[in-house]
Specification:
By secondary structure, the chain is of the alpha/beta class. The protein has eleven helices and ten strands. The chain has a six-stranded parallel β-sheet with strand order 7-8-6-5-9-10, sandwiched between helices. A four-stranded antiparallel β-sheet has the order 1-2-3-4, sandwiched between helices.
Length: 309
């Protein structure tokens, strides 16, 4: 078998390596991702699902700064599976070619992406796998208008719990009601009743106070197993799309923010309001607290004694 024929049927990662224009780039890949989906132009493919396999390789721009084992500095493979899910959910398609094109376009919107190989195969239509493979680059997007993509950005319901609310016997009932909501839920907390250490230095005190908020987040997580402490944007995005109740650990997002909060961790309600705006939340619910001035999102206030969420 010639090298050309072998490469034609090799995994997209090998094809990417063989066709790299300026030497190999860093890559991420998703292999053998199988989804049950209704797709196809034939009448026999309508009203029924079939297994479709996705193999995707994304070449990315080299990261010049240290990664520091930080998930928010890389292009997560969740972006690939989310692109697949979003295009499958948008409308029923007849052609794998159309689906591959749309997935490639959505992936290449990501800032780090340079080129992507998308292979899609039907596993149930014949004795073998029947499919297509395309390769697209960011330069291809410049020569054609990018198609419409459904907005899959979650708009969470951010909830601030006072210490009284965290300790309330109604906490489990409130979480039941929050979990039943259509939009994802992110919880924010204030400081524990124990004062944090004083450093005498503004920047170090800021970090200590942020860590004090995170300590209280872990206190809340200890009250109910459904509450998972999360500190990175990548993890929050994943949690929102998978029905997890997150408790925000603020240090990383606050310290990394280019347009950071005007208020400090000594004003946790104001910080929660900034976070709600940062996350493009649908609203901010305060349980047992008064609203801050000029919040970036609509604010709802519930008295602890009367709260029914």
């Amino acid at each position: 078998m010639s090298k050309e024929i072998r490469l034609a049927f090799a995994h997209p990662s090998e094809r990417a390596d063989a066709t790299a224009p300026d030497g190999p780039l860093d890559r991420i890949s998703v292999r053998d991702h199988v989804v049950e989906v209704e797709i196809g132009a034939f009448q026999a493919e309508r009203g029924t699902t079939q297994r479709v396999a996705f193999n995707v390789v994304v070449e990315v721009r080299p990261i010049t700064d240290p990664i520091d084992d930080d998930v928010d500095r890389i292009l997560s493979y969740d972006k690939v599976t989310e692109a697949i899910a979003a295009e499958l959910a948008e409308e029923r398609l007849n052609l794998l070619e159309t689906l591959a094109e749309r997935i490639a376009e959505r992936i290449l919107i990501e800032p780090q992406a340079v080129r992507t190989f998308v292979r899609i195969e039907k596993l149930d239509r014949g004795p073998g796998a029947l499919g297509v493979e395309i390769v697209r680059s960011v330069d291809d997007l410049k020569t054609k208008p990018v198609g419409h993509h459904a907005d899959i950005t979650p708009h969470p319901h951010v909830v601030y719990l006072s210490n009284t609310a965290i300790g309330s016997p109604n906490l489990s009932r409130w979480l039941d009601q929050l979990q039943a909501r259509a939009e994802p839920v992110i919880l924010c907390v204030g400081h524990n009743r124990v004062d944090s250490p004083k450093t005498g230095h503004r920047m170090s005190q800021r970090r200590v106070d942020l860590l004090a908020l995170e300590q209280n987040a872990w206190v809340l997580a200890g009250r109910d197993d459904r509450c998972v402490v999360v500190g990175t944007r990548t993890e929050l995005d994943w949690a929102m799309k998978n029905g997890q109740i997150s408790v925000w650990a603020p240090s990383k997002i606050v310290l990394d923010a280019v347009d950071g909060p005007r208020t400090g961790p000594d004003d946790p309600v104001g910080l929660a309001a900034w976070f709600a705006g940062h996350m493009d939340a649908s609203d901010l619910l305060l349980i047992g607290e008064v609203p801050p001035r000029d919040p970036p999102v609509p604010v709802l206030v519930q008295d602890i004694a009367q709260s029914g969420l």
